[in-house]
Amino acid sequence: MMRGMQTLKALVLAGACVLGAAAPALAVQPDEVLADPALEERARVISKDLRCLVCRNESIDESNAQLARDLRILVRERLVAGDSNVQVVDFVVDRYGEYVLLRPRTSGTNILLYAAGPVMLLLALGMGFAYTRRRSQARSATERGLSAEEQARLSEILKE
Amino acid sequence: MIIELGHFALILAAVTALVQAIVPLIGAQMRWPGWMAVAEPAAGVQFVFTLFSFAALTYAFVTSDFSLNLVTANSHTLKPMLYKISGVWGNHEGSMLLWVLILTLFGACLAWFGGNLPPGIRARALAVQGSVAVAFFAFILFTSNPFERMEVVPFDGRDLNPLLQDVGLALHPPFLYLGYVGLSMAFSFAIAALIEGRVDAAWGRWVRPWTLAAWVFLTIGIALGSWWAYYELGWGGFWFWDPVENASFMPWLLAAALLHSAIVVEKREALKSWTILLAIMAFSFSLIGTFIVRSGVITSVHAFANDPERGVFILAILALFTGGGLTLFAARASAMEAKGVFGVVSRESALVLNNILLAVSCFVVFIGTIWPLVSEMFFDRKLSVGPPFFNMAFTPFMVLLGAILPIGAMLPWKRAKLDRVVKPLIPALVLALAIGGLAWAMQSGRSLLGPIGLFLGAWLVFGAGVDLMSRTGRGAVTERLARLGRLPRADWGKAVAHAGFGITMLGVAGLMAWEQEDIRVAQLNEPYVVGKYEITLEQVREVEGPNYLSTMADIRVRQDGREIALLHPEKRVYPVAGMPTTEAAIDYRPMRDVYLAIGDAQAGGAYTVRTYIKPLTNWIWLGSALMALGGCLSLTDRRYRVAAGARKAPKAGVPAE
After folding, report:
1. Residues of A in Cβ contact (< 8 Å) with B95
2. What pTM does this model have?
3. Does B208 fall in a domain?
4. What phi and psi values does residue B544 have, to the nearest 5 degrees?
5. A82 CA: distance to closest CA in chain B (Å)
6. Which residues of chain A does B582 touch, with a Cβ-Cβ cutoff of 8 Å?
7. Which pLDDT tens digit goes with each residue over B455-509?
8. Which domain holds residue B155?
9. Which CATH superfamily hosts domain A2-100?
10. SS3 label, residue B108
């Protein structure tokens, strides 16, 4: 249901963009596909990392929206014009802003995003190791004998 | 009339919950048995009232009572009966009612079946459960009343969102909610233990079945949602790392961590405070999930600002329970001293590693999900975090987890020798390496994704088999096989769930590494070839469904000249909702799916057709089903049924403790 709500929103937005058509178009259309398979492959790779701006969390490769189609065509035009993958992405980001990237750039404050996982893992491993070390050096409960509470509980059981 | 009674029952349930939240808590503190005993009947009564209220709403949907705002907005007389019923929770108000219904159901189960718990713990846990219920009853009654009437009654409704008119999606929310809300039990037990100041092996044993059940429901719910996305959205993706998906995935990861760490508490009385913390966090993530989905804050900050009432309310609930729980934890956790002693190489330490990987991977998903919000709010940088980031940041954790799991699962408790554990696993390792290597040699690309995924999946499956066999002791192979059937259900559950995890990995790896795609304008009766298959678009018809119009294609699939399937992908339009949907047609096979979707009409009677060959895809859901089955097997283990280790209820006059 949750995906449904989200897709609903995407579809409503998409529907608003598709010119007069009630039926959904399916993402990449045959007429967009480039003749050169190598270029087309690169276009697909690039489009998977670009966001459809009027959709919710869909790449332009998956989206049915007219804007996504325009962007797919734009990407292919730049590739045919001889741009490298990086140049194409920069071209799109210049026009639509960083928001268009599904894989955020590793610059500036985004370093926090990328570092969060590895740093947390190292911290957790350190803490886990320290804990395990402590447990392996602790004296076992049997050596310590019973606590007063346990002693009381034991006698309670024995009485039963 | 029934509607008003339903509304009234909801208010009564809320009042009962309020009593249940306060009286038993005071009773447990003052050791007044009478006050503590209020909890059980209150939980039962609360459930019955909520059930009546839910039944009243269902009745309104089934009889298409369009005097109800909610029914008008989400139903239609022509809609099939199944979707009239599922329409009850296919909207905000109704789904929140389902949420509290399940919450009260769990509370009632604790009251009915918790007879072997010490009265103090039971009264406190039920009181906490009651306070969660109060918060959500208030949320429904004050911000999302499902029983609101229309001023003018229309002739017919506006129909349920067509995407929700589907069997998989009809069942998806109830299962997900059973999981989310099931974690509230772990939370209630954790808070009760913190108030009581004592966590022991018995506590681990009580909390584990609830966690396990919640995890099983979450697994089923998530798998259903992902399967639905696969066949419904028209290009066969199964996971999109969307905020609402992540909202259900984070509690799943933490519940998986919790049900493993609770074993350590149960068997070895270690990891106590960590397990309590996990129980608090797992439920908090359920609340965060509810907040994300219900407030719309992640979609856009502006969507939140437009209708802040509900979002702020849930945020307050979240702050109250998470904040309260963590404060209590900070104050009392030091009282929980670990007892078990174990070596650096032991089952305990392997489970610590399991918990680290699951918890940190959950943290990574969390950071990725909220980063766009954080970045916009604090750094004024509007950006997106999508699947490419999550695939890159999350996958390594699952690879590590899969790599160590078979070894960790076989390590003995307390102190282990690594070489003795690894020795019986060597054949499994060699076989898995061979499978991975074969995949590497046979594929055309240079990608490591497929071979590594295949290796890990096979390693997990074979490892689970070796683990199970190792439990049968010594002797001839036939004898040991005979003993397999008599192993405790918990052993079977563990092996089946771990193998299921491996099978899901196989499926994910197969689909992501070796999918084939073909997009073209297909002329009628002109066959074309995709991979090993010959596809022919034979006919396109207009078909009328109960509440939709469909453009349906007949597409024949042949392999080596032999027909293997006649598929009917559709494009539907639901006139009332004014919305189109695609219905992909899939030939499900064990080793691959042929997946067809039809697009727009082209000149000369041709149609756009998308063809996908998706290797091993079904294994994703087969593995999920096995994980859920493993959980169920564990739940039926004898030690939960005989309630061993439970304390006898103290005799009258003895202070309850």
Report:
1. 1
2. 0.89
3. no
4. -105, 125
5. 24
6. 24, 26
7. 999 999 999 999 998 888 888 888 888 888 888 899 999 999 999 999 999 999 9
8. 1-160
9. Cytochrome C biogenesis protein (1.10.8.640)
10. helix
